[in-house]
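Example for tutorial group B:
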């Protein structure tokens, strides 16, 4: 049985990734902060849900222990992430907001990856780690600087673990989504609708969580087994520089 840990599993990219992995034979051990979520979309799939906060060491241990109780871990998909509660100019960004965003997006991702990586090394059977970063890792957005910094951190986390774990047969890659229709972007839908309409995204549409899930599956199932430390940009061409 293939076991995949997926964080941020209740909605958006996390849910879409978990469903697609489950359809392809993975048992999902998922975590999110929601205490009593609607899991009806997972009906018929082998999914175990853990309520927890990625920034909490105790909750990360609870998630890892639940996965290990099922058997060997084949994949870790780090999706969980938060945006600032309030968008502020970087000249007005608060330490509280920085700590909140970095605690989940960077620190939580780092130390869950460390814990799962150690488990995978002990298993001696390889594995795949996929980090969901963002186009914000390399795109300035001065009203949410803490988010950009946190996602740039995810890129370095990816590189570091890819380097360290290559000799163990464990691949570590990241996906940088562009503008994806999730709960996080719903609050600024009107802004992004206009930007997409004005040509920001060459493919001319919003990305969907399922677009990212397909990349997640390919990185977990061995399709890119000779690739590690790589950043897969899935943004409809938004990164293309044009004159």
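The residue assignment follows.
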């Amino acid at each position: 049985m293939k076991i995949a840990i997926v964080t941020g599993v209740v909605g958006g990219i996390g849910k879409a990734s978990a469903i697609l992995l489950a359809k392809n034979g993975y048992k999902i051990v998922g975590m999110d902060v929601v205490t009593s979520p609607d899991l009806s979309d997972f009906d018929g799939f082998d999914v175990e849900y853990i309520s927890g906060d990625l920034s909490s060491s105790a909750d990360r241990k609870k998630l890892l222990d639940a996965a290990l109780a099922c058997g060997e871990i084949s994949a870790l998909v780090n999706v969980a992430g938060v945006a600032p509660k309030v968008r502020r100019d970087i000249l007005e960004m608060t330490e509280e907001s920085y700590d909140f965003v970095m605690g989940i997006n960077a620190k939580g991702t780092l130390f869950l990856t460390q814990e799962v990586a150690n488990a995978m090394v002990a298993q001696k059977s390889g594995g795949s780690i996929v980090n969901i970063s963002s186009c914000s890792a390399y795109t300035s957005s001065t009203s949410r600087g803490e988010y950009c910094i946190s996602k740039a951190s995810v890129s370095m986390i990816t590189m570091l673990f890819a380097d360290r774990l290559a000799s163990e047969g464990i691949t570590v890659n990241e996906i940088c989504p562009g503008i994806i229709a999730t709960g996080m972007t719903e609050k600024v839908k009107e802004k992004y609708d206009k930007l997409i309409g004005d040509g920001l995204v060459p493919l001319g549409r919003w990305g969907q969580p399922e677009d990212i899930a397909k990349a997640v599956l390919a990185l977990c199932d061995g399709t890119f087994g000779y690739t590690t430390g790589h950043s897969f940009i899935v943004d409809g061409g938004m990164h293309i520089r044009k004159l």
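DSSP finds seven helices and seven strands in the chain. Compare this with the pattern of hydrophobic and polar residues in the output above.
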